[in-house]
Each structure stands twice: as structure tokens, then as C-alpha cells.
Design brief:
Blueprint: E1 7-13, H1 27-44, H2 49-55, E2 57-68, E3 77-87, E4 91-100, E5 106-118, E6 123-124, H3 129-142
Antiparallel strand pairs: 1-3, 2-5, 3-4, 4-5, 5-6
């Protein structure tokens, strides 16, 4: 497998029914677009429909975090890249960036943690070694990208220091 850094395959366009009362893409559809990009990423590393059928193994999202950087509107073309941040036998930690495909600006980011699950037992289990080997190659290529500024952030309102 040739590994691009970042993984850069997913494209789609903002649909009319994704627009909310503010005239831009609704938050739910950012997550949907990132989910579509997740599927493309998982397919590329071998965690696709054929894998699920043959092994009964899949991934479940257990944590995600979205940041909204700039608006996108109806008809805007999207390009979503994926960076594998880390993995072990049972977990995948990856990061998506959503760009306006024509204008190039960063519209949003999404950080995910997924678990590998045996669908027969509904329990977390180890990914097959062949999948882990593919992930190792991708992680090594993606390590050159550096850690994303938005990754690992916590949501909080900063406290103001009292004035004297």
C-alpha cells in the first residue's frame, strides 16, 4: 500500500438539506461528512465491508471532538484529509481536517478514537496483524506531519483572574 501523508481521498459537496436556519451547514452534517471520511479511511486500511464479512471485526467510535473554523454553505465542495495519530492492537486515534475544496481554507476538524470490536461477541478485541502492519506504515508516514493544533483539546470557559 502506498501511503500518502495525510490520507487524502474523501470529497463531497454540501447538500441543500444540510443547511440550517443560519444559512450554513448544520453541526450534525459536519459529523456526517467526517463519518463518510472515516469510512473511506477505514476501507483504505482494510477495515472494509469485506473484512467485516470475513472476520466479524469492525470499529466503533467511542470519542470524537469537532472544531468549527469557518462556515461552509450549500453547494460548497469539501475535501477531507485524515491523519493517523496513534494506534494499538485495539484502538485507532485519528484526525480529520475539512477544507473548502476550491478556496482551500480549513472549515473544521474532527478527532476520533475508535475501538476494534468482534461483532459476534460485541467485545473489544485485537485487530488482525495484517491490519496492524498497514496501520504501522501509515503511522510512520503520518508522523512527519506533526501533532495537529486542535487535537487533544478540552472544552472549557477560561476563568478570568480576579483584579485587585
Amino acid at each position: 500500500m502506498e501511503v500518502s501523508a495525510p490520507f487524502d481521498v474523501h470529497r463531497e459537496r454540501v447538500r441543500a438539506d444540510w443547511i440550517d436556519y443560519n444559512g450554513h451547514m448544520n453541526v450534525a452534517y459536519y459529523v456526517l461528512a467526517f463519518d463518510h471520511a472515516t469510512d473511506a479511511f477505514l476501507d483504505a486500511v482494510g477495515l472494509d465491508a469485506a473484512h467485516r464479512e470475513a472476520t466479524g471485526g469492525s470499529t466503533f467510535a467511542v470519542d470524537s471532538h469537532v472544531t468549527y473554523e469557518r462556515e461552509v454553505a450549500e453547494g460548497d465542495p469539501l475535501r477531507i484529509t485524515t491523519q493517523l495519530l496513534a494506534f494499538d492492537a485495539k484502538r485507532l486515534h485519528f484526525f480529520h481536517r475539512m477544507y473548502h475544496a476550491d478556496d482551500g481554507y480549513l472549515a473544521a476538524t474532527s478527532e476520533w478514537l475508535n475501538l476494534y470490536v468482534d461483532l459476534n461477541t460485541r467485545r473489544v478485541s485485537a485487530m488482525p496483524e495484517a491490519i496492524q502492519a498497514t496501520l504501522r506504515a501509515m503511522r510512520n508516514a503520518h508522523a512527519t506531519l506533526g501533532w495537529p493544533e486542535q487535537a487533544g483539546r478540552a472544552i472549557r470557559v477560561p476563568e478570568k483572574k480576579p483584579t485587585a
